[in-house]
Amino acid sequence: MDRDRILLTPGPLTTTLRTKLAMLKDWGSWDADFNAITAGLRTRLLDVVHGRDTHVLVPLQGSGTFSVEAAVATLVPRSGHVLVPDNGAYCKRAAKLTQMMGRKATVVPFAEDVPVSADAVEKRLRADPSVTHVLLVHCETGTGVENPLAEVAAVCERHGKGLIVDAMSSFGALPIDARTIRFDALVAASGKCLEGVPGMGFVFLRRAVLDACAGNSQSLAMDLHDQHFYMEKTGQWRFTPPTHVVAALAEAVAQFVEEGGQPARLRRYADNCSTLVEGMGALGFKPFLKPQIQAPIIVTFHAPGHAAYDFKRFYEAAKQRGFILYPGKLTQIETFRVGCIGAIGRNEMQQAVNAVGDALREMGIPSGAPAL
Ligand SMILES: *Cc1c(COP(=O)(O)O)cnc(C)c1O
Hints:
The protein is α/β, with parallel strands linked by helices.
């Protein structure tokens, strides 16, 4: 079978043919035609958060983590102190990269099956005035839980703290409005809900804090302040851009706008998510999160309790049927994850459920129900 499998993973994900075809052209990185693509992309992305008046958009080469690292390096002075509410693997990664860059990081731990509490964040800010920034993961992709961005942003504003948001897996799908939610930096990437291919991230930086960012970064390549002003001056990326990725993202964003923007994308993903959860439920599977805190991005399911279950075999059986699942990321209990994002709809989700049902039958497992 040489057809592409459907990726039920949170990036890379399934893209449209139109997006893939946009990569069949070579661009000169200094050329005016390519610079126009970058410039158009920057304004279109600002429009997604209604941020033209308040923010600038700085693209950066690399995977999403590179841009989180760049946001912290650029925003947080070396003497800064970052508070990281932690309810999962991506929060832990954010705290680790902050520490590794020599900034002080304090983790506020939460259970993995509940959202971060804005009240608890506020208590910590009251107790420790040395905190300069809060780093919030909007949708914790490790489980799929949605964290309360608006509430945490309000707390940060009230206390005069900077806010850095890792909105990697939520941007484009969940509503984020820069006119009502104050953030200093918000990070996302090409290969998630915008349905581009992986290879670049981008960071919205608040204009009001931009000048104060000069000289913060300990890294040349990660310096978003430098990247921004160079791009403003020359229209070009500082260092070799991922030209094909940029062209594909521009095409993906054009389709995003045609589809109806963020509200339409959320509707499709929410439909994907409910189709998945209902279908899997009928097979006996149980989601890890309560429905009211589940973002329609990625769903964590408990592994079946049956003795014959083995993730590798299960994965292979689903793959044989055309669907790529994702391993779990919880340390305490066995789970697996299924993404709801990408250029797919209800039909693909229903087919994925059918494939999972067939995979269970092949393994001799009568039900996806977890162990009690
Ligand atoms: C995907 C993702 C990232 C970035 O991961 P990369 O592997 O570096 O692309 C960061 N944070 C969250 C919440 C994500 O979902």
